[in-house]
Write a structure and sequence with these properties.
Elements: H1 8-23, E1 26-27, E2 34-35, H2 38-48, H3 59-69, E3 102-103, E4 110-111, E5 118-122, E6 134-138, H4 140-144, H5 159-198, H6 205-219, E7 247-248, E8 255-256, E9 262-267, E10 270-275, E11 280-284, H7 285-291, H8 306-309, E12 312-316, H9 317-334, H10 339-373, H11 379-408, H12 414-434, H13 449-453, H14 457-466, H15 472-501, H16 505-529
Antiparallel strand pairs: 1-2, 3-4, 5-6, 7-8, 9-10, 11-12
Helix pairs in contact: 5-6, 10-11, 10-12, 11-14, 15-16
Length: 534
């Protein structure tokens, strides 16, 4: 058999497939009427939709649209489409066949296809009927204005219940704090009275410690440590593996551990150790009493009772937080602000002043500039504008001086260093956005130099800064290059120190040469930028 011949079996299979396709049910793509087979579908298309007529030119589509419109709903209030004149009621675009022409079945206005995407149940009179109506395309305004649209369901206020639960929790917390304060008063007064009873005698130390232990157990009930195998706070097991022993808190009686630990974090290629919080601490009697000086103690320490002040009391971290955190917060509020935050507050206040002065200054400048084009000038307006200009430049000078003070602050830890760098970036951005564009001001106040001569020297320096030859783009590029150079200098200095410790003197010589070149380039950039490097 040749390759072009057809097998009888293949012909029978194709014939059986055609019979199956003809017998399968099909639906009309226009009116979705189901037909028994393809023959009936073709007859339906030729008879009902005029597909057999070659001269129909799409009349079957129009017939179907007219049939859809005449579905029983009222359409007498629909706007009539005028080609080239009708516009969408929402976007006001001209309606064409490309963007679609449709009426809202509820209000009757004409809309394009993009703004008639919602449906609503309407009755035969085009009124909203959510029970017996049928879905018809409507505009968003009609859909959103129907009753019940976007209404909230049943709401139950839980505020009173929340307030009741919160007040009960707060009352429990306050009672707990009062209980701990009362126990602390008894504990410290007992320590002082028992220590005074036995004095600072070496032979009476054993008896004193024994009596102090009995007194501690009388203040709060200690939990039995025979059945406790984990710490009450960190839930770590006691044993020889962690080399931790059991301790009782003298205020709550719970069993806690006292092991130390740390975790390492790598931030910006720097390794930092962060000490973790311990579960219990031994606090000296002097520190504990000074931290709670608002409590009324019956016994007071005398200057000659140093041995009593050095006694230590074991407290868990939960009781310490409950007793001291709130007091520490109130004490910190009375302390003066750190230098970094005080400079930031000053910068923020000066920036608010500058933002307040700039809009009226620019408006007045624009007004006078327009009057100069008309050859009309007002001496009073010029005087007011010069006063605003002096005030503005003086504020800029103050901002610049505070920014220099901020640069000279040495951070005490890594967090302060990050805050300082963020503040420097913010101040640099503020200067770029507000000071540098002032160079483009027209020479309106050319005759007002006598006013600037009366200003402070800092204002003159700032005006000289504004009249420099560098453009804003060059200043930004110079600052970015200077920041990169300073970072490279810092890294190479650390490499030099490491090489010196490892006694690699050949590497030290190479690194020192590179460091000198970087320092020279950084010095040139600083001289080029001048005061604008900040």
């Amino acid at each position: 058999m040749q390759s072009g011949d057809v097998r009888p079996n293949d012909t029978q299979q194709e014939y059986s497939k055609l019979i199956q396709e003809e017998n399968t049910k099909s639906s009309c793509p226009i009116c979705f009427k189901e037909c028994a087979n393809l023959n009936e579908l073709n007859k339906h298309l030729d008879k009902d939709h005029n597909f057999g007529n070659e001269n129909s030119n799409g009349d079957h589509v129009k017939k179907h649209q007219n049939k859809k419109k005449s579905s029983g709903i009222r359409t007498s209030h629909h706007e009539v489409y005028n080609e080239g004149m009708s516009k969408c009621a929402y976007c006001r675009k001209k309606l064409t066949k490309s963007n679609g022409v449709s009426n809202c079945y509820h209000c009757g206005k004409l809309y394009c296809r993009s703004h008639l995407l919602w449906q609503m149940k309407l009755d035969k009179r085009a009124r909203y009927d959510p029970q017996h109506g049928k879905f018809y395309p409507c505009c968003f305004k009609c859909t959103s204005s129907r009753p019940g649209y976007n209404d909230y369901g049943l709401t139950v206020s839980k505020t009173s219940e929340f307030s009741r639960l919160r007040s009960s929790k707060m009352e429990d917390k306050q009672l707990r704090s009062l209980q701990l304060e009362t126990r602390l008063l008894k504990l410290i007064d007992g320590y002082i009275s028992i220590s005074r009873k036995y004095g600072n005698n070496l032979f009476s130390t054993v008896v004193r410690n024994s009596e102090l232990s009995k007194y501690e157990r009388s203040i709060v009930h200690w939990k039995d440590d025979s059945n406790v195998h984990t710490c009450n706070i960190c839930t770590s097991e006691f044993g020889l593996v962690r080399l931790s022993r059991k301790h009782h808190c003298r205020l709550c009686g719970n069993i806690v551990c006292d092991t130390d630990g740390y975790e390492e974090e790598v931030i910006n290629t720097r390794r930092r150790k962060t000490t973790m919080k311990k579960c219990s601490y031994q606090i000296k009697l002097r520190n504990l009493k000074s931290s709670t000086d608002d409590l009324h103690y019956n016994s007071q320490l005398r200057p000659d009772e140093e041995y009593i002040a050095e006694l230590q009391v074991r407290l868990c971290s939960t009781c310490i937080d409950n007793l001291l955190l709130k007091r520490k917060f109130k004490r910190d509020l009375t302390k003066p602000m750190p230098p970094l935050l005080s400079r930031y507050e000053t910068l923020h206040n000066i920036a608010d002043v500058i933002r307040t002065i700039l809009p009226p200054f620019q408006d007045a400048l624009q007004k006078i500039d327009n009057e100069r084009t008309k050859k009309v000038s007002d001496e009073k307006e010029l005087a007011d504008l010069s006063k605003l200009r002096v005030k503005l430049l003086r504020s800029f000078a103050n901002y610049n001086s505070v920014n220099k003070q901020l640069c000279s602050i040495k951070p005490s830890n890594f967090s302060e260093e990050r805050v300082k760098n963020s503040l420097l970036v913010e101040s640099s951005y503020f200067i770029n956005e507000n000071i540098l564009p002032l160079r483009s001001l027209p020479a309106v106040l050319s005759g007002e130099d006598y006013v600037m001569s009366k200003s402070e020297p800092e204002v003159k320096k700032l005006s000289e800064l504004m009249s420099s030859d560098l453009s804003i783009k060059e200043i930004k590029q110079g600052r970015e290059e200077l920041m990169v150079l300073e970072e490279q200098i810092f890294q190479i200095e650390s490499l030099v120190e490491t090489a010196k410790r490892q006694r690699k003197f050949d590497e030290v010589a190479t690194l020192t040469t590179n460091l000198n070149e970087l320092n020279q380039r950084a010095t040139e950039l600083r001289e080029k930028l001048g005061q604008e490097r900040f």
